[in-house]
Amino acid sequence: MIKYFVFLFSALLISSLSFAQTGSSCSSPDSITSLPFIKTGLNTGDAANNYTGTNFGASNMSGYDYVFCYKPTIDISIHVKITNVDYAPGVYLVKGCPDSPSVVCLARDSSDNTNLELFSVALQADSTYYIVVSTHDYGGLTATTNFNISVTESFQYDLATYTYWVPRSSCSLNNDQQVHLEVNNNGYDTIHNFYLNYSVNGGPVYTDYVDSALAPGARYYHFFTQHQDMSTVGEYKFKLYSTLAGDGNLNNDTFKVSIFHTDTINTFPYFQDFETSNDWGSERHFGVGHLYDYSTWELGTPNAPIINSAASGTKAWVTSLDSLTNQFESSYLISPGFDFSNMIQPVFEFDIWYETANYDYTILEYSIDSGVHYTTIGTINDGENWYNTPASSPFQGWNGSSGGWIHAKHEMPSLAGVSKAIFRIRFNGNSIPSEGFAVDNIYIHESPLNDLGVINVVSPKTGCSLSSNENLTVQIYNYGLDTIYSFPVSYSLNGGAWVTDTVHQTIAFDDTLIYTFQNILDLSSIGTYNLVVKTNLINDDYTPNDSIAVQIINYQKITTYPYIQDFETDNGGFTTDGLNSSWEWGTPSDTVITNASSGTKCWVTNLSGYHNNPEQSELYANCFDFSNMRNPKVKIDVWYETINPSGGQLESTVDTGNSWQVMGVSATIDTNWYSSGYMWIGSAGNWKTVYQKLPSLIGKTDVQFRIKFVGATDASGLGIDNFIICDNPLAGADYSYNGNQITFTDTSYNADSVKYIFSDGTIFTTANPVYTITEDSVILTMVAYNFCGNDTATQTIYKTG
């Protein structure tokens, strides 16, 4: 069954060609006519979303599907490799189309974000097989993936190096390090005898003989008998490879990696600006962790078109000083070791500049087990300028454009007392090269003794019915190591005079305190209030984290309907929020979304170009009182020009924004709504009016709507115009008999006009018609109309009452 039919029908002129797109379905596959078959630079979003794989339990086939077809002329075994993927990919080799009840899945592989392989799949001559590349779609964010595909004949004997586990870059490598290699049997016959080898820095080759049976597709984990002396600080270039008599494929036998033994720092504070010393890199190349020399990290003077300077001085670490990252780069900038044995709460600070493409991201990680395992430091927005990807994103990190050098800071309580820690700055690239990530002025130190700050305004919150008697309650955090017993805290509303209270309470290190000011706030007027709250601790060692600034909005509550907002006079009282919001009110001048739906003005994600990337933004409407509405309905003019997984949706709240619900999905209430699943995705081609009944909101007194937009792939985005809330009619009528004559009385709710349609062809457009029944029974379809729309009620009328 074809998914998202409603979208394809309603946007036929735009998207009907997707059925003929190569790779979109079993009827329009990308045909494999000979082996080896290799294609690069593909994307499942260029195909269609036709299959779910539920017939054979596919876990990663809820996104768009790219379909290949292969009909071998002889019995053959093949090896399928999918590389350069994004997040949550899956590959399935099936006999029969995926939606066929008789489909048989011969092989599958799926992951979170790693390459995929199908080993030695036996195929029969003259049978038709399909290879489907898809994803697990997390809320519209991972509906597509880039990928390369390689389909080759499986050799009888093919022993491939796969990966290694130890040693890893660390500050505690010794003179007796184990060396590990993992190999895989890519052939279709069992391997019995083979050799595994390694060398370091071009030195002697150490060889182990393996007398073990390795079945097709099986992996073998090997620790070499010869250990390696890595006690000297420096770089160790490993070459690991397999040797198998009769190996039919020598291209996958060798694996190369550089391992670093780093210095250990135990004197703090530690500061590195890379001007005169280079313990993260430079001459000894510490810190550039890479596979197959794929890293672009360089230390020097940045000279790219955008990242063109250091944060201070002239030198910084950058993923390429004057060019772009590699396609699908996965690389690391590795630190020296640190001894935090005598520290209570270490703090990591540095200057960063990022200019990345879609799905690129950078994170800071630490390891305390000699680099075997790494842990991400922090989560989105929980430190100073810390990670900016949307909360719903399948990855977290720094992404997009920082617009220049910014300062990032995060506490590291988990490293207190740890004697051997190592950091790495991890860059993950995608299919589109970018200038990437730059690092300067790394500062690692103990938390200060005295450091207090406001971290949250607990109340009041933006809402529908704010009053003249609002309590101001805040959350205060002690960053410092000393216990604080008394301190002043102040607030200013709309730039007015500071109001100060003295808090006579104790707050220990790494603890929080909830405090309510003695004064109350008057927020009864409709509009936006700018509130700043700060601590005023005497001798505070770090003042940038003392204060918090928030906007509190008291929205107008609408009680008269229909409510019609065309945004011509003003912005309608709508407001924006969220990550990297590009929402603008005004006259569109984009090359795609070129005009408003009516008049000249509307809301668009960037009036003159592409939306931001990444973006997870919201456009908030006013509040609505539905207490007297029996059939509320929303109508909006939308123009969407997005590339999956970018898109928008309408959400509502009835609890002042504590929780939000997506309003409607395709074909559940009104079919003229979302274009795909539960979002407006794709190309509308022009303005279109969408509508949705709101039965879950009947009787609610504080309803607020917002348009939520997720931007992940560059495009014009989403436009909103003519936002209407109205009370749809409800059709109904009573009737009475006088012999064969039936008198109808219109009982419809909120109807401007009605129509009675009888199954014998009789039609009345008056409110209270008299109908003569001549058959034993007749079906009445009654339609009620008003500005908002129409409603239909059907019942059977019998000749005798």
In short:
With 801 residues, this protein is mainly beta. The chain folds into six domains: 5-153, Jelly Rolls (Sandwich); 159-260, Immunoglobulin-like, CATH 2.60.40; 264-446, Sandwich (Jelly Rolls); 452-554, Sandwich (Immunoglobulin-like), CATH 2.60.40; 557-727, Galactose-binding domain-like (Jelly Rolls, Sandwich), CATH 2.60.120; 733-798, Immunoglobulin-like, CATH 2.60.40.
Tags for this model:
mainly beta; 6 domains; 801 residues; 6-stranded antiparallel β-sheet; 6-stranded mixed β-sheet; flat; Immunoglobulin-like; Jelly Rolls; 2 helices
Description:
This protein has 801 residues and is mostly beta strands. The chain has 6 domains: 5-153, Jelly Rolls (Sandwich), CATH 2.60.120.380; 159-260, Immunoglobulins (Immunoglobulin-like); 264-446, Jelly Rolls; 452-554, Immunoglobulin-like (Sandwich), CATH 2.60.40; 557-727, Galactose-binding domain-like (Jelly Rolls), CATH 2.60.120.260; 733-798, Immunoglobulins (Immunoglobulin-like), CATH 2.60.40. 1% of the residues lie in helices and 44% in strands. The protein has 2 helices and 54 strands. Strands 17, 19, 22, 24, 25 and 27 form a 6-stranded mixed β-sheet that branches. Strands 18, 20, 21, 23, 26 and 28 form a 6-stranded antiparallel β-sheet that branches. β48 (733-738) and β49 (741-746) form a beta hairpin. The radius of gyration is 33 Å and the shape is flat. The model is unreliable at 1-20 and 282-293 (pLDDT under 50).
